[in-house]
Amino acid sequence: MTTIKEKTIRLIDELKATCQSFGMGNDGNEYKIITQVFLYKFLNDKFGYELKQSASPVSDKIRSAENWSAAYRDLSETERNLLLMFISPDVPRLMPEHLIDNLWNQSAKGDFDFIFDSTMLDIAHRNIDIFSTQTTARTKIPLFEKLTDFVTDSEQRAPFARALVDKLVNFSFEEAFAQSYDFFASIFEYLIKDYNTAGGGKYAEYYTPHAIATIMARLLVGDDPDLHDITCYDPSAGTGTLLMALAHQIGEDRSTIFAQDISQRSNKMLKLNLLLNGLVSSLDHAVQGDTLVSPYHKSENGTSWRQFDFVVSNPPFKMDFSDTRDRIAAQGTRFWGGVPRVPPKKKESMAIYTCFIQHVINSIKPGGKGAIVIPTGFITAKTGIEKKILKEIVDRQIVWGVVSMPSNVFANTGTNVSVLFFDKSHSSDKVILVDASKLGEDYKEDGIQKHRLTDSDIEKIVSIFRGGIAEDGFSVNVSYDEIREKGYSLSAGQYFDIKIEYVDITAEKFNKCMAEYRSTLSAMFAESHRLEKEIMSELKAMKFNK
Known about the structure:
This protein is α/β, with parallel strands linked by helices. 42% of the residues lie in helices and 13% in strands. The protein is globular and about 95 Å long.
């Protein structure tokens, strides 16, 4: 029997194939089409599901109907309004003309592209007060936009819209609604995997693997069942992977999400992620704009940046932000460690992540916690802004720990990464440093070699970190004084004991080993001399030919 996950993945593949058939495979606008049509189908089915679950006296007509959308269409206006009063605020209010069945019934019309786009725009307009995100200038970004204009050939727009609707009518999400985060996290990852790359935007769009997001959330939140009204913030939110993991660990109904990212693409995907995970109330806090230049989320008096219970970030490490560098540097209170200068020859090497580290620290409220993904080289920095930041977080005793990750665990960067954790509760006088660089397993996806952490790896990292456990060659629990003595290094390896293993060996075995070493070295020297002669001979021949 085909599972709902398999059916959903097949739907995504079919939508992508439709785009391919109409000349938009890998087109810059393909992600808008795929994510918007997917979301439209999700909300259509969610709306029907909520109508059936409603406590309204009218809902019996929906539950008992063979076709719920037809039954909804047949209600009187009074009955319909009564029914809408009882359904969850987590779904937009849809009229009968908005439903997929209605689109399907009109799909043979010659102007179906106009009908399709008009339906999307009307849904967005009627629900814009709740179901929209915004920019730092408070411009509302609606739920949906016109799609068929992306087809260059106007004669193909109606067939394109028709082909999209064809893929939706024989599929239902209803079976998935009880599965929540565990289902939609993997579906969302599959949905956006072709579009969420660093090349598509300026800041975030650096996809955080689900395993890393899980580790960060579990370490920051723990297992406290009594958390309520918790605020979570990501200043480089991307598609929201870190925030979704946090909200799930806390409880979606007990947390509010705050996010900012400069990328339009990321904002659209973040909106989808929030809706899939039932975090509609956080849509208004998902802002598009440059966090470093103009952080949107301010304190109640509006004079300083807002602080949160949990702050997470996976920022870009290096990029050219020379256009805004002076505006950022003018905010000396925010960027107390400094702002990277503009290199004269390689502007793209500006270490922008150092600005995000400072912003993350500023944004954690007293008693709160945070975590940020950083290049591993940062934790042993000896000079510059990096060293100033290291000294600050150690001297203020707000660094909680570091987990150094395996190479290539982030699919879109070859940089070795670590996760730096902060704790402003000052509840411990020790720092836990974990070297997880040797964990994980290799696997292939789409013919590309990748690396990932396993479930057992995640459990090991979480248990070691939470317990502050020292394990030979894997973790250490060190004092702030020890860190200062090591030049403020946060690398676990620099604190490991050096152990020399002594092995008894007979004189005969020793002499045999030494003879083998001499033989190997002689062979290597002979080979190097041979290669040297060949190279010299080729060089002479080249010179003679000239």
